[in-house]
Each structure stands twice: as C-alpha cells, then as structure tokens.
From TrEMBL, chains A, B:
Top-rank taxon, per record: Bacteria
InterPro entries named in the record: Roadblock/LAMTOR2_dom
Gene3D superfamilies: Dynein light chain 2a, cytoplasmic (3.30.450.30)
Record organism: Geotalea uraniireducens
Protein known as: GTPase
Domain Roadblock/LAMTOR2, chain residue ranges per copy: 3-95
Length: 120, 120
C-alpha cells in the first residue's frame, strides 16, 4: 500500500475521520489525504502542530519522562491526534468532535511503524 | 469536598495515578496532590505545560476549531492529561505509562466543572 492509500485507509476506517497527513518536524508535509466533507485546512493545521510538537518535545526533554509518543488536542469542534513516527516525522489524524478518538489513537499507534518503514 | 480532596480522589481512583494539580495559565499553581510513589516533579511539569497550553490555545484560535478543551501528552514513561477548567485555570493529571488513560480523561471531564465552581 502506498503512503496515500495508508492515510486514506486510516481516515476512512475511523468514525468521524476528516483527514490525515505525514509531516516533518521542519514543517514540510510528505503526503496527505483529506475527505471531501470538510472545511478543514489540513495544511495549516499541520504547520501549526509541527511547531507545537517541537515545543512539547522540548518540554518532555526537560521533564525527563522519555520520548514523546503521542499528542492529542481536543477542541469544541475537532479531535486531533498526533503520533511520532521517528525523530524526523509525525502523523496527524483529524476527527470531527464526535469522532471515535480511541479508535483513531489505536490506528495511528498500529500504522506509525509501517509508515516509518515505507519512508525509510 | 475541598479542592485537595477532589484532586486526591481523582489520583487515587485512576489506575496508575501519580499526581494532579490545578494551575493558572499564568503559571501559578492553585493546589496539588501527589502520591508518595513518584519521582515526579509535578511543579515543573505544571509550569512546562502552562506554556504549552498557551501555545496550543493560540494554534487552536488560528485554526478556528473552537475552544481548547483537552490536551494529552504520552511519552515512553508517562501519560499526562490536561483539561481546561475555564479561561484562567486548567487541571493536570499525570499517570504512569501503563495507567488507565481513558478513565483519567473521563474523570477530568467529569470533575473540571465542579472544580471551576469551587474556585469561582
């Protein structure tokens, strides 16, 4: 399965899936898949969260609680789950506010290693 | 129940609970409860995450996805869940890496409004 197909499978498997993207910590997107449904600006979201992931990574280093694995941000209108793939890349999944958060987390945890290998 | 007792009840109800604190976005802690078990620096954690919550709050405003409700950060050694109480305060729960993340999220969601009223 190509990267685009993997992203599509994740988004379409999870209830409320809006889009998914693989992104570098340098803010450069690798690939993305977005449903037709949304007014979601996945590109802008990825750039904003690239900054946040770097900030959280630094905080986690200060706190000495081990490597950053996952960040999630829930707002009134969305659920965003971000999973570290390796030191360079992370995976973002955006869900509707009533999306299946637990399943989204599970799919990212399951797929992140495979995506890392695909891009190695 | 006092604020300290509420924090204690949360930490002791959730499997793997290490500590909880109520914190202002200005970085000033209101109260905290910490189990004996840990080497956890809850004070430092709260200060680091106060900064992160402000950053994420700004990102969420840019993205126009509604009010920030919850942030979670999972690392190799810990699960941290942060729940907004109101515009001034938030609630942090720290769990061990094998702690019950779902129950922690549920308890914070349930208790945040009551804590907000207690401090109003």
């Amino acid at each position: 399965m190509s990267l685009r197909e993997t992203l599509k499978a994740i988004v379409e498997t999870v209830e409320g899936g809006l889009g998914a993207t693989v992104m570098g910590y340098d803010g450069i997107p690798i690939d993305e898949y977005l449903t037709d449904s949304g007014t979601l600006d996945l590109r802008l979201m990825a750039v904003e969260y690239a900054t946040i992931m770097k900030e959280v990574g630094s905080a986690v280093e200060v706190l000495k609680t081990g490597e950053l694995q996952e960040l999630s941000v829930n707002t009134a209108m969305s659920r965003v789950i971000i999973r570290a793939i390796n030191d360079d890349l992370f995976l973002i999944l955006a869900l509707a506010a009533d999306g299946n958060f637990g399943k989204g987390r599970y799919l990212l945890m399951r797929e992140a290693p495979a995506i890392g290998e695909l891009l190695a």
